[in-house]
Write a structure and sequence with these properties.
It is a single chain. By secondary structure, the protein is an all-alpha fold. The chain has 2 domains: 1-61; 64-164, MetI-like fold (Orthogonal Bundle). It is built from 9 helices and 2 strands; from the N terminus they run ααβαβαααααα. The chain has helices at 2-6, 8-26, 44-47, 54-61, 65-83, 85-96, 100-111, 118-129, 135-142, and strands at residues 37-38, 49-50. A two-stranded antiparallel ribbon has the order 1-2. It starts with a helix and ends in a 22-residue tail after the last helix. The relative contact order is 0.06.
């Protein structure tokens, strides 16, 4: 007991951390009950009708479910395969660059999407790789290489979804 009274400021700091986790991590978990209810915003969690696994059965019976599930797995794989090691590799490579201006330019280009809306970033990428009017395909046309439509289609388009 003497230890607690002696170190009370530490316990107050600990109390703030515990309150944060309860308020922002555990209480929101109660909202997952919506998946098992026919939720009505006016009736709330408690008064909404319990439907059990009906929403999940409806989801699994959809004809597009397997395609959506496969796309989710592919994007998740790309996320792990490319988004995890890429920043580390880029940081190591940029660390070796001696020209300060070049290093700052590359960093600016790489960080720019983090400050823009992802809808805008995707729109810019789509316009750059568009088969008819895209900058990349026009440059390829000057080298007598035909337009590449697959740059904006699935599965190549899944790589654009990678974020972080």
């Amino acid at each position: 007991m003497r230890f607690i009274s002696k170190n009370w400021p530490l316990y107050i700091m600990l109390l703030l951390v515990v309150a944060y986790f309860i308020l922002f991590k555990y209480i929101p978990l109660l909202g997952s009950v919506i998946a098992f209810k026919d939720y009505n915003i006016f009736e709330g969690f408690i008064k909404s009708k319990w439907v059990g696994f009906d929403w999940f059965v409806t989801l699994y019976k959809q004809p597009q479910f397997m395609k959506i599930f496969k796309n989710t797995l592919v994007v998740s794989f790309y996320q792990v395969a490319f988004s995890f090691p890429a920043p580390i590799i880029l940081a190591l490579l940029l660390n070796e660059v001696r020209k300060f201006a070049y290093k700052r330019s590359v960093q600016t280009i790489v960080y720019l999407p983090h400050f823009l809306s992802w809808a805008l970033v995707f729109g810019m990428a789509y316009m750059m790789f568009s088969p008819q009017t895209g900058l990349v395909n026009q440059v390829l046309g000057h080298f007598e290489i035909g337009p590449k439509g697959e740059l904006v289609e699935i599965p190549s388009g899944q790589l654009v979804c990678l974020r972080e």
